[in-house]
Each structure stands twice: as C-alpha cells, then as structure tokens.
Specification:
Blueprint (H helix, E strand, L loop, with lengths): L26 E6 L7 E6 L9 E8 L7 E9 L28 E9 L2 E8 L2 E8 L21 E2 L7 E2 L10 E7 L12 E7 L2 E6 L13 E5 L3
Antiparallel strand pairs: 1-2, 2-3, 3-4, 5-6, 6-7, 7-10, 8-9, 11-12, 12-13
C-alpha cells in the first residue's frame, strides 16, 4: 500500500486480497529468473490465508524494468496434505511424519529459480522439510478471477465440516502449478539438521540448505549449513 511518509515512491500493484494474510505469514520466498530477456520474479506467501486451507498463493512479477514492476500473473499450488485436519481428525496417506501437523502448520520459507517457468520451493511443517519443483507453464492465472479477490480461493482446497482436503480447484476451472518432489528430510540419509530450514540453493548435483536460528533465542545455537547430494 502507499506509504505517504516514505522517502521513495511505492507502487500499489498487489491484490487487496493479500491483506487477509495471517499474522506474521506474509511473503517468505522469492525467486527470480536470470539470463533471459524478461526478468520474472515469483514471491510466495508463507502460509495459506485460511487455517483450514492448503492453497499456497504465488505472485509473479514482471521486473524487466524494476521501476515499473507489474503483476504479470498469480498462481496457486497445492499444499501437502497433513496427517491431522483442521478439525483434529486423523487423515490417511500424508507425507508428513509428525501426526501433530495440521494445515495451519504449512509454511513456505525459500525459493530458487530452476529455469523457464519452474521454481523450486521449500515447504516445511513441524519436524520435517520438503523441497518441490513447481512448474507454472500450464497453471491457471487467477489474478483476475473473482475468487482470488478474497479468501474464497482458499476454500477451493480446504478441510470442511464433512471431510478433509476437499479439492474443488479443477471444478472451479483452476489448474494449480504441477509439483515434483526433489527431497524430503524424512528420507535423506543422515539428516540431523533443524526443521526450520529457510534458505537453499542448488550447486551441481547438490543442494545447500541453511536454517534460521532466530538470532540464537531459546538457545538455538548458530545457523548450520548442510549439503545434501541429490539423485538424478
């Protein structure tokens, strides 16, 4: 929003719907393309805007001219189903190993451009981290849809009073970004790092990742950089 006392100009280009984000769950991941004629950046909300929702929002910015940046698209991708729904009921077939995880615990904490319309993203919850590659090439741009102007969009993939993880995105004509698993700390041999991973990058066939130690509060110690060898 415009900041009248700022010593610089502020462009009001983001959707008003984003003001409904949960407290302290604003933008948490940024990835930008490089070496291409058009400079695109993808910014990720840290968590779904409803505590019962699994809808992750992503805003795509055209930053070719940074002083005239514009929202070129807005996409969604499906959060990973949790083992407990927002009503406290057990849910089958979840990849999260900690049974206490609910949709409100889903967080995005970092992103890394991998080429064209593909971005790798770090999704985490209690005790565990997963890295996904998202492909926006065939995803629906929801920027102008009426549902995206409010949290109605979040209700298209959410727990309801009748069932968990009710997915009506397709019925609403919305194709989320496809996602492919890159790594899962539950299956990385020898993984002993904290689950609060908040930064990563790829170097050759390896992934370098680092945790946020919250400035050493609660005796969390220094941040630790880890290197995981990727297969394929």
């Amino acid at each position: 929003k415009p900041l009248p006392d700022a010593p610089y100009s502020v462009s009001n280009i983001l959707s008003d719907a984003l003001t409904s984000r949960r407290k302290n769950r604003g933008f948490e991941g940024l990835a930008c393309s490089h070496g291409e004629a058009q400079l695109l950046c993808w910014i990720f909300l840290q968590s779904p805007m409803l505590q019962s929702s699994y809808v992750h929002r992503v805003v795509e910015l055209d930053m070719t001219d940074p002083l005239a940046a514009s929202v070129s698209a807005e996409y969604v991708w499906e959060g990973t189903k949790t083992p407990t729904d927002s009503n406290g009921n057990a849910v089958a077939d979840s990849m999260w190993t900690n049974a206490a995880n609910k949709p409100k615990d889903l967080k995005v904490s970092a992103a890394f451009w991998t080429g064209s319309k593909k971005v790798a993203v770090l999704e985490r919850a209690k005790s565990q981290v997963m890295w996904w590659e998202l492909d926006f090439a065939n995803a629906t741009d929801v920027k102008s849809s009426s549902a995206a102007q409010s949290t109605e969009l979040e209700g298209f993939l959410a727990d309801t009073s009748e069932a968990a993880y009710v997915n009506t995105l397709s019925a609403q004509g919305i194709s989320p970004a496809s996602k492919t698993l890159i790594a899962n700390t539950a299956t990385i041999e020898g993984w002993e790092l904290p689950s609060k991973q908040e930064g990563f990058a790829f170097m050759g066939g390896s992934m370098v990742t680092v945790n946020d130690n919250d400035f050493g509060l609660e005796f969390s110690g220094p941040s630790v950089v880890g290197v995981a060898q990727l297969n394929g």
